[in-house]
Amino acid sequence: MAHIPDGILAAPVLIGGAAIAAAGIGLALRRLDDRAILRTALLSAAFFAGSLISVPMGPSSVHLLLSGLMGIMLGSGAFVAVLVGLVLQVVLFGFGGLTTLGVNTVNIALPGVIAGMVLGPPIRRAVRPGQRAALAALAGGGSVLATGGMVALCLWLSSSDYMPIARVMLATYLPLALAEAAITATVIGFLARVEPEALAPEVR
Amino acid sequence: MIARLVPGDLRLRLIAAFVLVACLSQLSHLPVAGAALAVLAVASLGRVPLRRLRHVEGFVLLLFVMLPFTLPGTPLLTLGPLEMSREGLARAALLACKVLASALVLLAFLGAVEPARLGAALHALRLPEPLVRIFALTPRYLALIRDEIRRLREAMRARGFRPGTNRHSWRSYGNLIGMVILRALDRARRVDEAMRCRGFTGRFPHAALPRPGLRDWRGVVLTAGLGVVLVLADRG
To answer: What transmembrane ranges does the database entry give (chain B) (predicted)?
Structure first.
């Protein structure tokens, strides 16, 4: 859904995306100790496996991004989780892109990391389940919409000819955002009931 | 034929695929991009599962369909209020050639990579150690987690779950993903303990990869050469 393939974007956009992705991954790696590396690896596998589930949406179906959830549970580690997922997608299924790895990583991970930074603390503090669900839905749905906006921005920066298409494309993100918001709220609610410490990006 | 181009050594294969795709993605003339696609398609005939090319992202399809109608230029055909332009059609064809050619390269070069070998190759390419460790661990446990999901979904179906566009389905999928995350976290703890018991010191003992042979280097040179020739033809 949010994966831009090779052959569409202009070189400056590709290079800029790769530079931001490298910075994000560098930041994430500095904070990882041995146990956090294992947690990040296993969660990356779980998020990637979760995104392979096709969720019915009207006559079609969508695949979740789970980026809001990654931001809340992994913090900046979401950059690593998204990169690993994108690489595995190329290797296992042969789709995605090589030159667009950086751009795609940033488009998916950055909104999640920001959602985790802003909404993570109030979600962990929330006492009422309703309030927690609302914040989690905002993190999940908001991240997806932001990703759509960033994909549109990448297209527009590459060539202004793409602009009318970018606008139509944004509308296609609305159903995904809806499903993502509902499912993120449930996952966060489930984890908060069963194992609240799982929601913190730090390993204690 | 493409088997001659693809280096057997995974490190060199990654580099060769990246160079060729990077060159392909910057082509700006339809005849060159079309020729590149034709060469790659003929070379990989019977070697690449073409079925896999059918997967096209929704917005890419949108791009192909809308570009001919949104780009102003010489009108070619009028459909009610819509006007198809020659320039737009050429642009859409150029993008389609580039996207398809790149996808062919990905399939031919990286379609048969065992994910378990990625860690060692990325280690040899000097990626940061923590990142390499994650690349080595994630595919190892991905298979287990996908099996877990399959079992959980079977259990849901056995209890009469019928997926649809409604809150009940979303809540069920949310609980499924939550359960999978919980088990992954448990597994991370167990694996951590097991690794400590076996004296893990913070570094994976990656087996040294054999030196790339003449065939591998020839593949890289041919692939990169193809890329450079294409870019030069495009510029000239």
So the answer is: 59-80, 92-113
Which residues in chain B (78-137) have CB-CB distances under 8 A to chain A? 91, 95, 98-99, 101-103, 106-107, 110-111, 113, 115, 118, 128, 130-131, 133-135, 137
Domain boundaries, chain B: 2-113+211-235, 128-197
- Separation of alpha carbons A177 and A147, rounded Å: 10
Residues 90-129 of A with CB under 8 A from B: 90-99
pLDDT digits (tens, 9 = 90+) for B114-140: 887 888 899 999 999 999 999 999 999
User: Model confidence at B1, in pLDDT bands (50, 70, 90)?
Assistant: low
Distance of alpha carbon B108 from alpha carbon B43, whole angstroms: 10
| A11-199 fold | Arp2/3 complex 21 kDa subunit ARPC3 (1.10.1760)
Nearest to B142 among A45, A90, A185 (CB): A45
Model pLDDT for residues B37-76, shown as the tens digit of each residue: 999 988 887 777 767 776 666 778 888 888 888 888 888 8
Pairwise CA distance, residues B21 & B44, whole Å: 15
Please, which residues have CB within 8 angstroms of residue B236's CB and are 6 or more apart in sequence? none
What ipTM describes this predicted complex?
0.93
How near does any CA of chain B get to the CA of A186, in Å? 5
Mean pLDDT of A180-193: 96
Are residues B17 and A98, on separate chains, in Cβ contact within 8 Å? yes
Among B residues 194-213, those touching chain A with beta carbons less than 8 Å apart: 195, 200, 202
Query: CB distance A98–B106 less than 8 Å?
Result: yes
Q: What is the mean pLDDT of chain B?
A: 89
Angle between helices B10-25 and B115-124 (to 10 degrees): 90
pLDDT the model gives residue A135 = 97
SS3 B29: coil
Q: Shortest Cα distance from B215 to chain A (angstroms)?
A: 22
The tens digit of pLDDT for each residue in A31-43 reads 888 889 999 999 9
The answer to whether residue B109 scores a pLDDT higher than 70 is: yes
Contact assessment for residue A158 and residue A9, using Cβ atoms and an 8 Å cutoff? yes
